[in-house]
Amino acid sequence: IDNQKVLMKEFSFSDAGISRALGAASHATARQPAKTIDMGMSSKSGAQMFAALQNHFMPGTYDLLRKNCNSFSDVALFYLVQRRLSAEYKTLERLG
């Protein structure tokens, strides 16, 4: 798309709960750029996903080994497109 920006909303999970931002804000301080993987289209909106998941990913419930950002991504993917996050991104959960 010439000279146009496509605004993408990012949802992420941390100890503050679910956050919403434009672009890959959760990776702004990362050493490497965020990796984007096309997982498909959904008939559900970001607002619908937020409403469905907010009670399961409350502030103060983040746990690095058991309930982390990848756990959130896995649940959000399943809610939106009925697909699971690849096992390569769930190494910490297997340890916990």
Which secondary structure elements does this structure contain, and how are they paired or packed?
Elements: E1 9-14, E2 17-22, H1 46-53, H2 69-81, H3 91-95
Antiparallel strand pairs: 1-2
Short description:
This protein is 27% helix and 12% strand.
How much of the polypeptide forms β-strand, as a percent range? 5-15%
The radius of gyration computed from the alpha-carbon positions, rounded to a whole number of angstroms, is 14 Å
Contiguous low-pLDDT stretches (5 residues minimum) are: 1-6
Shape: globular
Counting helices, strands and paired strands, the structural category is alpha+beta
Mean pLDDT score: 84
Number of helices: 3
Helix fraction by DSSP (H/I, runs of at least 4):
25-40%
Q: How far apart, in Å, are the first and last alpha carbons?
A: 43 Å
Which strand order do you get reading across the main beta sheet?
Answer: 1-2
Largest sheet: 2 strands, antiparallel
What is the helix/strand order?
EEHHH
Q: How many distinct beta strands?
A: 2
